[in-house]
């Protein structure tokens, strides 16, 4: 079995949208600092591109989570595999994710991080699959809403491959 990748959102379109969202974030956080929390591994490419375009002071921290349960059905309880290095007390936190699917991971993560007393907490995602949502999650910044298709590239993987593609593609399985 091999895979073919079809381009869904091209490189230039992704880059232009990230600049637009970064400009909006810079306006919204004017006069403040924004503390970006990158959700590893998928969020890393998006976080870097976004952070480079934000014009207010930025600090960065990283977190890695994995979902309990099998691949197709996450239980909604996430295990923190790598926790943040710094406390969130008094910070204006912006979580940066690759994709919101069922919303289970983010809804759990936001609850955990809210308990650490940040001044504010918002969510920014590269992609959103609203059709798949089972848990209500408020998305403050979203680059693209996409249909219910499995996508790769720009940090997103299929069996750990394709994260480095500079565009968003759809995986087609073929014999
Ligand atoms: P959920 O919102 O808790 O269901 O989980 C979201 C996570 O599932 C994302 O952070 C991705 O790691 C993964 N995921 C969901 N949809 C896709 C996809 O289309 N391609 C690659 N990973 C995906
Ligand atoms: Mg992810």
Please tell me about this protein's structure.
By secondary structure, this protein is α/β, with parallel strands linked by helices. The protein has one domain (10-149): Rossmann fold. 22% of the residues lie in helices and 35% in strands. It contains 3 helices and 9 strands, in the order βαβαβββαββββ. The protein has helices at 11-28, 44-53, 104-114, and strands spanning 2-9, 34-40, 58-67, 78-82, 92-100, 120-128, 141-145, 151-152, 168-174. The protein has a 6-stranded mixed β-sheet. It starts with a strand and ends with a strand. The relative contact order is 0.22. The mean pLDDT is 93. Magnesium ion binds at residues 39, 42, 97-98.
List the main descriptive attributes of the protein structure presented here.
binds inosinic acid; Rossmann fold; alpha/beta; binds magnesium ion; three-stranded antiparallel beta sheet
Describe what is shown at a glance.
The chain is of the alpha/beta class and 175 residues long.
Q: N- to C-terminal separation?
A: 5 Å
Number of helices: 3
CATH class: Alpha Beta
Low-confidence stretches: none
Helical percent range? 10-25%
Might you state the CATH topology name?
Answer: Rossmann fold
CATH hierarchy: architecture: 3-Layer(aba) Sandwich
How many domain regions?
Answer: 1
What value does the average pLDDT take? 93
Strands side by side in the biggest sheet: 4-3-2-5-6-7
Give the helix/strand class. alpha/beta
- Outline: globular
- Total strands: the figure is 9
List the ions, cofactors and other small molecules found in this model. Answer: inosinic acid, magnesium ion
Proportion of β residues? 35-45%
Reported for the largest beta sheet, the result is: 6 strands, mixed
Rg measurement, Å? 16 Å
Order of helices and strands: EHEHEEEHEEEE
Oligomer: single chain
